[in-house]
């Protein structure tokens, strides 16, 4: 038989993740919206609304880019590129090894907000809304 | 032989329409055709050419009815010398053979035609692939590369696509296939019908053949700019004294809706092309960071891996069953 081939880690497409149930709550976050909006194509459109972000993420052109990104990440070619974005060392190492799971863990270790932090944020947001 | 790189571009009516405008030609647009029934073809009137696209594979193409006489000097037919240029080649083939008043060819294509018309099909093909102006426009529709890298998994999308154009020319139907030596003559166009009616059975036969062979294909039409067509019709309706007010209102609102739809389409082409040319890398990095910040990255990756493994298992099982 063709031994070995079966033991390869299956390549995953990050786009499948980005169109998952997590996307809507993340895109409705005002801070995220602001950060992402800065990286939309110039002259894109009108308002830079949440709808526009959602449409961009759902566009075949974006999907294509994410698929390329996914392949590059899992073939270990993305490390040097990601280093330019100032990602944490551990995430770069995982990217150099093409290890998506290790990459995800390194990213969360560095960026994930603790629960208290998020709760605090929420309550302060609420106060602002009621004022 | 052919100098310079030609990028692979997407087979999409928006890309093709903007490509035509990028060449400096005006008055026409490209529409995708999903059905060859009367209604669909009626909407495409006046149609100047059909472009049939499919994944290229070695076929037993017949060389019957090849044009070998002096018509070779009249019909602008160029042989395809490089693969990636085929979208441009098909469009240029239709435009350079079109004599309809609606089409304004513009200087780039006009000069190219004047220059290359005297050559044989092989030399025309070389001249086209060496045209810096035409190549630059073509390449401006290439997908933005995130960065240079070896895309092993992208092979499936790099399949060579091949384009064939069908055009009416001086009362006869021709097939222009850059991989053939000459245009193929499909005979006279019936005088009291649209030329597309003559083309329909021939195109249908091809579609049938490819459907059976599970070959992916699509069909595009180069048509007069629809917005201008509807505006002309609107003027006629408004000036027609034979219409009752109700009839006029109904027609006016229908045409206004169609015009609005064309404007919407034009705007979405514009945005799609912006997206196509955009470097999405910083956006993706920020989105991945946002996933990490919200603690959504690990569960999502895990879930995707489980799904992928399940898919892989299904495929292995399928293979086993076959053995």
TrEMBL record, chain B:
Any GO BP annotation: protein deubiquitination
Keyword Cytoplasm among UniProt keywords: no
Reaction equation(s) it catalyzes: Thiol-dependent hydrolysis of ester, thioester, amide, peptide and isopeptide bonds formed by the C-terminal Gly of ubiquitin (a 76-residue protein attached to proteins as an intracellular targeting signal)
Site feature location: Transition state stabilizer: 80
Chain ranges of the UCH catalytic domain: 5-224
Annotated site (Important for enzyme activity): 177
GO molecular function, one term: cysteine-type deubiquitinase activity
Group of enzyme by EC: hydrolase
Active site: 86 (nucleophile), 162 (proton donor)
Keywords assigned by UniProt, alphabetized: Hydrolase, Protease, Thiol protease, Ubl conjugation pathway
GO cellular component: cytoplasm
PROSITE patterns linked to this entry: UCH_DOMAIN
Enzyme Commission designation: 3.4.19.12
Family: Belongs to the peptidase C12 family.
PANTHER family tied to this protein: UBIQUITIN CARBOXYL-TERMINAL HYDROLASE (PTHR10589), UBIQUITIN CARBOXYL-TERMINAL HYDROLASE ISOZYME L5 (PTHR10589:SF16)
Protein name: Ubiquitin carboxyl-terminal hydrolase
Organism: Adineta steineri
Taxonomy of the source species: Eukaryota, Metazoa, Spiralia, Gnathifera, Rotifera
